[in-house]
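Both lines are retained for reference:
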Amino acid sequence: MNIRSIAINLIGDDIPLQKNYRKTSPGKRSADANSLLSFTSLNPGSFSAEGKGKGLEVGETVFVSLKGSKTLSLPLMIKSITYLIEPADHWQAELEGESFGSLNIYTWQVNCDSCQQPYPLEFVSRSDDDSSAQIFHAETRLTALGWLLDNGQHICPVCASKESRESQLH
């Protein structure tokens, strides 16, 4: 299992590609400079990317920002990569990920039921999902962000942490 991941951000013309070494040996933390030059969907679940830089390998996961989103990304695995002789340090890669037709990005306002703080929740749902499926995806995203969901109550990570500490003391 490969534990290295790469974050690709699709904002701008010469896009930086950052590697995130989540778990490496001491002294092996580094970030090769990469830029994403083009990105194309070939078929549902199959993508093509072209970029410049070094160090990408088959089996690594890249996270491509979803167009129109501030925080969401699509995880894609590098299926194949070819480094080009000319221009130097350029590459072409085939990527694979979840197969879907069309996605919508939603931003809903969620209030913590403990501290009443508002939170703009961004999540993704398939275009043909009904409202119950959208709610499921919103709650899945909240859970991934550390929110506690209990009997219709939405508790932010800060309050959830406080409640957890208080319950440990009693």
Summary: The longest helix spans residues 131-144.
